[in-house]
Every structure is written in structure tokens, then in C-alpha cells.
Amino acid sequence: MRSLTRKFNQFTAKMLDLPQDVVTDLPRMTLIGNVQLYIENHRGVLHFSSERLLLALSKGKLEVVGKQLVIRAILTEEVFIEGVIAEVKFIP
Questions:
Q1: How many whole angstroms separate alpha carbon 8 and alpha carbon 2?
Q2: Which three-class secondary structure state does DSSP give residue 23?
Q3: With 10 labelled, which of 24, 59, 70, 78 sits at a CA distance of 20 to 30 A?
Q4: Exposed, middle or buried: residue 92 (CB in 10 Å: 0-12, 13-18, 19+)?
């Protein structure tokens, strides 16, 4: 059933010319150099320190590794971090 729903959502996105992240609930990330990262469509902060951020996603987790990481803004589904970003990893 999930596969059918996912296919329907992808078909709908293509027919209506919508971005895939909106329809399929995928995270959207904007990385500016290695100093700023803006992430949309997360499901909450699981861990945060000055060297590691772990976010829950609808499917999996997102890990950000770096130095001097700071959360500049956090909303229900959006987070904006700054620091020296060394790595961004998706964990299924």
C-alpha cells in the first residue's frame, strides 16, 4: 500500500509540476559554503552538541558533523545551523 501511495504522490507531483520534496515529505537542505545549513521537513532534534546534530526525518535520520555548531533558528519543521560543517550524512 505504501508503494502505491508513493507512486501516486510522485505522479501527482509530476502532473502538477510540484517539487518532489513537497509531495514526498523529503528533507530540503540548503548549504552555504561550509558555514550555514538550512534544513526543512525534519521531525525533531534527537541530539545536539557543538560538534554533532542528529535530526529525525520522516524516513531515517540526518547527521551533521562539524565544529562550533550553533542552532540559529528552529521551527516545527525547519532548522538553521551555523558553524564549520564538515559532513552531512543521511542514515536510513
A1: 10
A2: helix
A3: 78
A4: exposed
Q: How far apart are CA 86 and CA 62, in angstroms?
A: 14
Q: Per CATH, the architecture of 25-91 is what? A: Sandwich (2.60)
What's the one-letter identity of residue 7?
Answer: K
Q: What pLDDT, in 10s, does the model give residues 16-33?
A: 666 555 556 788 999 999
Look up the pTM and report it: 0.78
* CA dihedral of residues 7, 30, 52, 43 (deg, nearest 10): -40
Residue 12 host element (H or E): helix 2-16
Owner of C-alpha cell 521551527 = 75
